[in-house]
Amino acid sequence: MTTVRDRCVWTQRITHGDLVPYLVEESAELIDAVEEGSRADLREELGDLLWQVLFHAEIASRDPDDPFDIDDVARGLTEKMVRRHPHVFAGEVAETPEQVLVLWNAAKALEKHERRSVLDGVSERMPSLALAQKLLGKADAVGIAPPTPPRAQDTPAHESADPGDLDARPAWATTVRSVGSEEELGEALLALVGSARDNGWDAERALRERLRALQADIRAAEARGR
Q1: If phi over 0 gives left and psi between -120 and 50 gives alpha, with beta otherwise, what is residue 200?
Q2: What is the C-alpha to C-alpha distance for residues 80 and 70, in angstroms, rounded to an integer?
Q3: Is 0.85 topped by the overall pTM?
Q4: Cα dist from 13 to 16, 38, 178, whole Å
Q5: In the chain, what are the domain boundaries?
Q6: CA distances to 10, 19, 39, 44 from 23, in Å
Q7: Where is this region: Disordered (predicted)?
Q8: Euclidean distance between CA atoms 93 and 100, whole angstroms
Q9: Helix (H, G, I), strand (E, B), or coil: what is residue 97?
Q10: Which CATH superfamily is domain 2-68 in?
């Protein structure tokens, strides 16, 4: 990487910020390889993502004020993994995945003791659905119950239809049935997006706005608990 940086005029001009779009793209391609690619695809995409890590580390190594290199990154990661696995490297005992998670979170809490909110460290740049799942976990931690989906009988009167006519029911009504698999969950989510499209709504914006409200609720619950 150092040789490339020294001899490639394009590479010499790249900053951490310039690399962000490539990092997003390579991460997405790795996900594709994991979910539907071949072993060769997976190997290649892991290499492409590793290149991003090496590239960032090389840029960081030349920072005039606070340089670090890939060895520093690897050393920090190793130390973190040792701290967060006391059942492996120390005297703690964890016989179930749930117990491992308890130890992991306890170690993480000690590392991040300066944090004052369960929302600290949660990136709002996460995809909306991933962020929603993350925030629901944080809400549960402060005692906020998850929202309940609307029921079929909540349909406005002007939208009422024969209950037996499934085609006439609002798209979001699919959420009220029992979802028994990720495939069915995908169908329900797609139906909700379809309903948004039919009504001229922006599904992404709607979820983002609801998540901002949930974040405010979480912070309010934390304030009450202090």
Answers
A1: left
A2: 15
A3: no
A4: 10, 34, 54
A5: 2-68, 84-111, 128-225
A6: 17, 6, 21, 15
A7: 142-168
A8: 8
A9: helix
A10: MazG-like (1.10.287.1080)
